[in-house]
């Protein structure tokens, strides 16, 4: 599974509609309205790299009101749950 974190600059007057439309794009698992330098953050999860172009360039970036996207591809996932399980197994990190 390939995970991409997509930062989205959006037309402020359409943020609720953009969130709803982006959330419906196949491959998008979550969409967050956030504070800071970008308006929205979308989590994209696909099986193959080629699918990223389909989801992000062909669908997500063409939603009316999406001004710009910036994509970060995750190399490895870490969570407190993963770390707790590793320590339970006796791994030192």
UniProtKB/TrEMBL annotation:
Q: Domain of life of the organism in this record?
A: Bacteria
Name assigned to this protein: Lrp/AsnC ligand binding domain-containing protein
Listed under GO biological process in this entry are: response to amino acid
| Transcription regulator AsnC/Lrp ligand binding domain segment(s) | 6-76
Please provide, alphabetically and separated by semicolons, the GO molecular function terms listed in this UniProt record. Answer: sequence-specific DNA binding
Q: Which SUPFAM superfamilies match?
A: Dimeric alpha+beta barrel
- Please provide, in alphabetical order, the Gene Ontology terms of the cellular component aspect for this entry: cytosol
Q: Which organism is it from?
A: Actinotalea soli
